[in-house]
From TrEMBL:
Pathway: Lipid metabolism; Phospholipid metabolism; CDP-diacylglycerol biosynthesis; CDP-diacylglycerol from sn-glycerol 3-phosphate: step 3/3. Residues 8-22 have a biased composition (Basic and acidic residues). This is Phosphatidate cytidylyltransferase. It comes from Halocaridina rubra. Its EC number is 2.7.7.41. PANTHER family: PHOSPHATIDATE CYTIDYLYLTRANSFERASE, PHOSPHATIDATE CYTIDYLYLTRANSFERASE, PHOTORECEPTOR-SPECIFIC. GO terms for biological process: CDP-diacylglycerol biosynthetic process.
Length: 450
């Protein structure tokens, strides 16, 4: 028994010695700035990131010089807010494809801003491949999302005419996986002594950025295919909530709302929420009257164009609803009808407005916490008075996920057009087999005459 105890003690000492040796080796491989990033270091490193709210156009600065900084910022924000709204309306006028292209541009720009912060924090001197790796993973993730769902489900009629495209669609997942494995192996081969911690930190940073940016932009485009109204109304609600919360907070705000954003107030939060509810319902009512906004984006093979006209679904047709008994009695006394005619989508817009005004701002709070963690005021300087692209779209991405979940849960239904898109991707003999099976089934059920 004594010998066993001595042996275990010796073994324990050997393991402790090995651990200390490993720690000594690791300590020699990691430079003093790899693991520890004190706050003063972070602040110093992120100073190079441009701040949009501090970038004022020279002409506006000259014209608004008599104003106090607070009012000057208010005017500049107002000017560029209306410019962005005007640009947004122009893109809507061009059509759904322009909206999709704009979404992709915004996605790439937001990814660039997030990745640039990572580069500033984890200074990667002498590692030029890592920037290329980040963009390679962006291309890979976009290819995976858009290649399968969008190309195969919505553009299959167009791409099925090319043998190469048919092959790419058939083996899309394997191609996507191969692209990711190339990036993974590339990353492992790029690992460099003394930079392991930084490299793995940026590897994780890149993947989180992809999760936040690419996934959400993909859901936005999926929403557009269900009809532009599912994109325009939620986006407009976020804009309305942001603008009205800022206005109410600017003029009436006194009670702080959350520590992450000291300028946010309860007065702005409540005022923005009420404004979003009523203005969102008015916007929804107006847009339900135009097929251009409510019709899903579908490709017409006979006309070889994208079709934006359709027979609107029931949620975009006026429906008559019975009022509650008490309210109906009051209306009857006034000589009015006991019913009210409304588009069902207007009722759905109430759920969208509640989410955009109650939960949507938390996307902004999340972004504020992120910026405070790295001692920066804005993600970039692309929009004077507002900051970077991510500063304007932090709440939009959270909203896009909710809208997509809402559509898939309460709205979406399988349509003949969607099934037909999948049939077109089958081989000719498979299409013929499906046709014969469907014909036999219809005859057996008495729907068709033999």
């Amino acid at each position: 028994m004594a010998s066993l105890g001595e042996e275990s003690e010796v073994r324990k000492r050997m393991i402790d010695a090995e651990d200390k040796g490993d720690q000594a080796v690791l300590g020699s491989e990691v430079d003093s700035d790899d693991d520890r990033l004190p706050e003063q270091n972070i602040e110093q490193r992120t100073k190079a990131i441009p701040q949009g709210t501090e970038q004022e156009p020279h002409i506006l600065l000259t014209l608004l010089s008599p104003l106090s900084p607070r009012w000057r910022n208010w005017v500049i924000r107002g000017i560029f807010t209306w410019l962005m709204i005007g640009l947004f309306c122009l893109i809507i006028f061009v059509g759904p494809l322009a909206l999709m292209f704009t979404t992709l541009v915004v996605q790439v720009w937001c990814f660039k801003e997030i990745i640039n912060i990572g580069y500033s924090v984890y200074r990667m001197h002498g590692l030029p491949w890592f920037r290329s790796l980040s963009w390679w993973f962006l291309i890979t993730s976009n290819y995976f999302f858009y290649g399968e769902s969008l190309v195969a489900d919505y553009f299959s009629v167009i791409f099925s005419k090319s043998e190469i495209m048919r092959w790419l669609i058939a083996y899309h997942r394997f191609t996507s996986f191969t692209m990711y494995i190339i990036g993974f192996v590339w990353f492992v081969l790029s690992l460099k002594k003394k930079y392991y911690m930084r490299q793995f930190s940026l590897f994780a940073w890149t993947h989180v950025a992809l999760l936040i940016v690419v996934t959400q932009s993909y859901l936005i485009i999926i929403n557009i295919f269900h009809g532009m109204i599912w994109f325009i109304v939620p986006v407009s609600m976020i804009v309305i909530n942001d603008v009205m919360a800022y206005m109410f907070g600017f003029f009436f705000g006194k009670t702080p709302l959350i520590q992450l954003s000291p300028k946010k107030t309860w007065e702005g939060f409540i005022g923005g929420g009420i404004s979003t509810l009523f203005l969102g319902m008015l916007l929804s009512y107006a847009m339900c009257q135009y097929p251009f906004f409510v019709c899903p984006v579908e490709y017409s093979e006979s006309e070889d164009i994208f079709n934006y006209s359709c027979d609107p679904s029931p949620i975009f047709r006026p429906q008559e609803y019975n009022l509650p008994e008490t309210m109906g009695n009051v209306f009857a006394l006034l000589g009015w009808k006991r019913t009210i005619t409304m588009y069902p989508f207007v009722l759905h817009s109430i759920a969208l407005s509640l989410f955009s005004s109650v939960i949507g701002p938390f996307g902004g709070f999340f972004a504020s916490g992120f910026k405070r963690a790295f001692k920066i005021k804005d993600f970039g300087d692309v929009i004077p008075g507002h900051g970077g692209m991510m500063d304007r779209f932090d709440c939009q991405y959270l909203m896009a996920t909710f809208v997509n979940v809402y559509i898939m849960t309460f709205i979406s239904e399988t349509s003949p057009q969607k099934l037909l898109q999948k049939v077109y991707m089958l081989k000719p003999e498979q299409q013929l087999q499906l046709y014969n099976m469907l014909q036999d089934s219809l005859i057996a059920r008495g729907i068709l005459q033999p």
